[in-house]
Amino acid sequence: MKQASRRTFMFQVVATGTALVASRAAVAQLGPAVPETDPTAVALGYKEDTTKVDAKKFPKHSASQKCSNCALWVGKPTDAAGGCSLFAGKSVKGNGWCSAWAKKA
Ligand code: SF4
User: Fold this and answer.
1) Which residue lies with its CA nearest to atom 6 of ligand 1?
2) Which of 95, 81, 91, 94 is nearest to 41 (CA)?
């Protein structure tokens, strides 16, 4: 292995390791998943899957509404789970929904 390619290889190893540590830190910041049985979740009709929302109970709900496009979502639109300001210290599913859903501006 030439000196330059060894240096490039070592740089890639360090860069990859740094990226892994950063992504693990981001995941670690997410709290435990909010169970649908959580008292606040029950009160808000939270479901981990927006397609499972009771249409009779929540007639204004639409399957296109989900946590990842809610104004209270803390995360990227493509994240599978993220934060929600209503559930401090916990995480909600990106595909979840609750009756506090509000369109992201
Ligand atoms: S407020 Fe928004 S992000 Fe939070 S649980 Fe309800 S729909 Fe999901």
Assistant:
1) 98
2) 91
Measured in Å, residue 94 CA sits from the centre of ligand 1 at 9
Q: Report which protein residue has its CA nearest ligand 1's atom 4.
A: 84
Q: 5: which 2 tokens? A: 């390619």
pTM of the model: 0.75
Identity of residue 32? P
- pLDDT tens, residue order, the chain (105 aa): 556 555 544 434 444 343 333 434 444 479 999 999 999 999 999 999 999 999 999 999 999 999 999 999 999 999 999 999 999 999 999 999 999 999 998
Q: In order of start, what are the domains of the chain with their CATH numbers?
A: 31-93 (4.10.490.10)
Asked if residues 90 and 33 have their Cβ atoms less than 8 Å apart, the reply is yes
